[in-house]
Amino acid sequence: MKNLVITACFILLSGAAFAQSAKEYTQKGRELYEKNEFMESLLNVNKAIELDPNYSVAYYLRGNIKDRFDDRHGAMKDYNTAIEKNGKFADAFFARGNVKMKLQDYYGAIADFSSAIAVNENYIEAYFNRGKAKQFLQAYEDAINDCSKIIQINPKNVDAYYMRGILRIDFGDVKNGCLDLSKAGELGDLKAYEVIKEKCNQKTQDNDGSY
Predict the structure, then answer these.
(1) Which of 37, 97, 124, 202 qualifies as a FRET site for 90, CA 20 to 30 Å off?
(2) CATH number of 140-202
(3) 79-91, pLDDT tens digit by residue?
């Protein structure tokens, strides 16, 4: 009985060291990735997966590396595995959605961004990219709502004001679209003023004849 307990403790300790080693290799891989040393990063991440085939973060990072090399399908395969290992991995859903955007699978991208948001309701980047996917599908009202949610979370998000301005103009709400662009310009996005010159300064008559 004593031997069984010792063996069990040894297995548990070995498992902890096993997982920690995978984590260390992944962290090293992340540091190399951030330095744009992708091949060295890949070697470390592969080692992490070899040590712990269930470590979702390693698959996610390897997916990022593959995406940098434009291996879209390879990246998606790794993101799939990361999500299989951890169904609450918001960043993996987000990254897979970005790959689908590049492949022009906008409905699939929207589904992934929505899954990321379901895990993290304040995931600003997921709202923004979901809005862009909806824009491609000309679902302007839904895309506007995503921008409005970003502004609710962060009232100084210049990109959300700019995109909502463009969307509102495309949707026919020129006045509010131009006000959004003005806010984007106020917050520092100078290209908003170029759009204002093009889209917002043309005289349009209302039904009552006033400008």
Answers:
(1) 37
(2) 1.25.40.10
(3) 999 999 999 999 9
